[in-house]
Amino acid sequence: MEHVLPVQVYYEDTDHSGVVYHANYLKYFERAREHLLGVEELVALWETDRVGFVVYKASMTFKEGARFGDQVDIRTTVRLASPYRAVFVQRAFRGDALLVDGEIELACVDGDNKLVKLPGIVRERLA
Amino acid sequence: MEHVLPVQVYYEDTDHSGVVYHANYLKYFERAREHLLGVEELVALWETDRVGFVVYKASMTFKEGARFGDQVDIRTTVRLASPYRAVFVQRAFRGDALLVDGEIELACVDGDNKLVKLPGIVRERLA
Amino acid sequence: MEHVLPVQVYYEDTDHSGVVYHANYLKYFERAREHLLGVEELVALWETDRVGFVVYKASMTFKEGARFGDQVDIRTTVRLASPYRAVFVQRAFRGDALLVDGEIELACVDGDNKLVKLPGIVRERLA
Amino acid sequence: MEHVLPVQVYYEDTDHSGVVYHANYLKYFERAREHLLGVEELVALWETDRVGFVVYKASMTFKEGARFGDQVDIRTTVRLASPYRAVFVQRAFRGDALLVDGEIELACVDGDNKLVKLPGIVRERLA
After folding, report:
1. Does the reported pTM lie above 0.90?
2. pLDDT (tens digit per residue) in B56-83
3. Which of B115, B92, B118 is nearest to B103 (CA)?
4. Which of B80, B83, C52, D15 lies 20 to 30 Å from D22 when distance is taken between CA atoms?
5. CB-CB under 8 Å, A34 with B12
6. Which residues of B sit within 8 Å Cβ distance of C?
């Protein structure tokens, strides 16, 4: 099951070399994860239980740069690596062209910044 | 004629005080202007004629802060103030609540960074 | 009494037009205000009293763009407009050239997001 | 030989979870690389030869979050992996505490976006 989020490239995303600044793909990836997990569910987890997601590992390979005005599709798949960790394979495409290939590992922490199991609602969603 | 762009508030947009970082409303406003003017037209102007838009003046009043997970609507109206300047009245709303009230003046420059008249296609669109 | 903060322009600050993205001057201005007010004092106010500063109004006029590799000086003066509001006149220079002319009004809010008087330590500093 | 760049954490760097937004460490790392390589040299390479650096790979492990007001030291070592690639080991510390552990691979491209050898001035600097 692949989740797809289309992202528009704006002025704010580019740098003076003419393409999207490399760090911004981490922002695009996070937007996609939030939609995949459910924004309302994330807000509820935060407001009710003070449970938040933290990025534990991130790796990216950059193939080609997106430019102002491009539409980029963020394609995401995810698997539970353990009760504590979810691994997202996330790739940015412009049409059929792979621009960036990434893998992001998430964990959850409570209000005291202690590692906690991924919430049931998330584990069900990813199962 | 009012243009409306819905914007989702992500982690990247907020700061440690819990609300959207003030400078990011300028990003939201620019996204809205780009859609209003037409992203393809802006790309074509840039690639063909090296004509780009620059912000000449910006002012904002901040009433209330948007939070993670909110959907914010950017409501924009625009008028030609002269053949060289377009003035955008841009406001951010969460539902009926006005969050930020802004006014942005744009001008156009060519590849040598000289002020030029707003392109015909833009003046027609705004007329 | 003018406060000067030198800021280096990095890739992250520019956009594809070749100059610093307009919203980023608000970031530069905020960095300068934080140094002027005292970073440690701001942290203490936040951690002890949950008092934070919020931008109430911001206006900027853009004269010229800074480029990658430039050093920009943020020159700031400030006055107490009332027990609740501080007004910062903030300008970005490259050498003697004025790039951006800004005025930022700050207020303080408590942990319930209620307006409070500017803390004594701040009023003394600005007096 | 280790290069150290101190970085101040501002409001703009944090997100609503209270710590520095993960993508921003890529910005900190790039600032450090620019100082290590020499900002003036990078500007000259770009303006004279249209040669720019691109990030080819990036990986990070996040241990602990920096907070508003922290000073973070970016510690960088670098080696030439080939005539075309430089590998930077970059770590963010708060005092003695390792916050983020990263590795960034850079390559160079010319004005047509073609891969070119790292410039002599860079290879000398890194040798």
Report:
1. yes
2. 999 999 999 999 999 999 999 999 999 9
3. B92
4. C52
5. no
6. 17, 22-24, 26-27, 30, 52, 54-62, 65, 113
- Report the C-alpha dihedral over residues A45, A47, A48, A52, rounded to 10 degrees: 40
Flag whether pLDDT at C74 surpasses 90: yes
Q: Any catalytic annotation for residue B96?
A: no
CA distance C69 to B19: 31
CATH number at residue A115: 3.10.129.10
Domains: count for chain B: 1
Characterise D95 by phi-psi region: left (phi > 0), alpha (psi -120 to 50), beta (else): left
Unique residue bearing structure tokens 């990247």? B12
Quick one: closest CA in A to C14, which residue? A15
* DSSP letters spanning chain B: --EEEEEE--GGGB-TTSBB-TTHHHHHHHHHHHHHH-HHHHHHHHHHH--EEEEEEEEEEE-S--BTT-EEEEEEEEEEEETTEEEEEEEEEETTEEEEEEEEEEEEE-TTS-EEPPPHHHHHHH-
Q: Please list, in sequence order, all residues whose beta carbon lies within 8 angstroms of the beta carbon of residue D20, skipping any fewer than 6 positions away.
A: D9, D13, D14, D65, D66, D67, D72
The boundaries of the domain holding residue A117 are 3-126
